[in-house]
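For reproducibility, we list the full input for the zinc ion complex.
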Amino acid sequence: MKTILILILLVSITSTPTLTFAQTAIDGFSPERAAAERRWEEQFRAVPNPKSAREHLRRLTIEPHIAGTKEDYATAVYVRDQLRSYGLNADLKEYQVWLNYPKTPSVLELITSRRQPLSTREAVVPSDPTSSNPKITPLFNGYSASGDVTAPIIYANYGLPPDYDELKKAGVDVKGKIVIVRYGNSFRGVKAKVAEDHGAIGCIIYSDPEDDGYMQGDVFPKGPWRPVASGQRGSVQFLFDYPGDPLTPGKPAIAGTPRLKPEDATDLTKIPVQPIAYDVAKTILSQLKGPVRPRGFQGGLPFAYHVGGTNDVKLRLKTDMDYKLRTIWDVVTRIDGNEEKDRWVVLGNHRDAWVFGAVDPNSGTSAMLELGHGFGELLKQGWKPRRTIILCSWDAEEYGLIGSTEWAEEMADELKEKAVAYLNLDAAVSGTQFGASSVPSLWKLIRSATRDVKDPKTGKSIYQQWQDHARENRPEDEQNTGEARIAPLGSGSDYTPFLQHLGVASTDMSFNGDYGVYHSAYDSFYWMDHFGDPGFKYHVAAAQVWGTLAMRLADTDGLPFDYTDYAAQIREFFNEAMKLARIRNLADSLDEKSMNAALDDFAKEAERVEKHRQEAIRDSDRAKLTKINNALIQAERQFIDERGLRGRAWYKHQIYAPGFYTGYAAQPLTDFRQAIDDRNSANAKEGLERIVEAIKRVTKTLKSV
Ligand SMILES: [Zn+2]
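The corresponding predicted structure, in tokenized form, follows.
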């Protein structure tokens, strides 16, 4: 799972102090130590190589490896044994979690004057050898309910609340009907939830060619985009409620943990949900009668869409799911720090895939193995990281971030005390354009690491290429001398439990390109070899950037966390939210003054701590640095409010969470912002108060330095 939105924006330089370094300087290191660090980093970056990255990917993508299957187990063993062969002490970690597979292929029939059976399988593409593998599952959604429903069908566009408002205006009621919605604009679990809330008894989700098919370019196997007989699998868990095992919210799915009854799990839908390819969608949509589509409903199929709802065009949908507690396997590898063993830099990438998962997620797994390869070599040459590095290969991410969430829930107390940062990779390579999301305190670190890794195609630094690409694609920013923009973290990958449940500073990175085969059988080794990364040099670059980031966090004297960027970013979010609050006449009830005062105080303290950090690094004042580092680590934790977000207590971070309806995308200042959207002034007031409290806690932690 992973958002496929590519963010290529620029922002102007914020008003933070500009630091100048000598050529070998690295933020956080004294000049002598920086030189040594640079040598180690260069030695590390020389290890990952395209040939072995390619071989890892080939091995990982031979069979479909859905979470909990024996093929998935085989990939866990492969990852463990490869890491062991590099000299690292990798081990498997098991959890028992609630998962579904389709017992039989779903039945789909269009009923007009006759009954027409429709396919729920993807076609074999002769040039892609793995596409004929008999173990490829038919199209299905993770956590769909089982059911057998027959009803008139209604086209509900993206399946989000404004779409149902439009249908209502057109006089169409979805109660007791089956809705067909297109992928895009939000996470599919949101579409299932909104359909269920409106009384639909079944939900079909299709890939419209406008989104990732022929409207974007040549389709597979001629090009990288989705062919007509391809659909998008994926989970319809209510991820915005809580991720992880549905039966053990907030607790690890291990022996001894009491489990909910499945019918009591609030993050599961009660209706059958089914993905289909766009050739099948064409058959259905072309038959629909009723009003012609409202504005914004038309997609890329070659006829005017109608919304349907008439009794003479019905659909039968039968899903038959095999639900069970199943074993999943994370692979956890620890490289102990030699001075600060109880400070953890955690790296993670998931390994399970809906089918072969060449891009999503095994490009990241291949990068992790090459990173492990590099760290193994350094250890042999005498490198000792100051802090502990933990590499995690997560299982069952696709169903709902399960392997990472269960591990984070099991290790919660230790992580709260020890975790320095969590660095995620998911669909790491689908092209050549670098992109990143992270908490603002790590923006400078990401930029500095990408300045030291070469872009394989252009020979420029990754940073330079990233910034140039953003400029070219945003001509309105041409005169802007800004830094490459780093997006906020929403959800849809494994950083969620670390950042949004525990308050561990997190990052996510990828190299992006034209990628139309997401969650299909064609996200294969063949696709990667022909379109995504022929030559596998970007797999190497991913390992280099990720490893450089990890080494800096693990080895540095003074952690390169910059909270002045955090304060500026929150202020930007707040100003934006207040604009909307004013338009909606909600501003009067809000204590804008307290928020601005809290932000001023936060920014001032952040600047002061940064000055102290630079001085302590210069003076190699270890006692002072320890104190500063502890405060910088714990400051992020203070954004956690143990009461949790409104109506979904698992999410505890006051700045970053996925919105209820935005799905993958972040809705910063979440509860406050949602209340403004809902025009609820009491909730907005309370939401803002909690944010102010959180900012004050962060400031207090910084003041301890
Ligand atoms: Zn993924």
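Residues 592-618 form the longest helix (27 residues). The two ends are 40 Å apart (CA to CA). Both points were considered when choosing residues for closer inspection.
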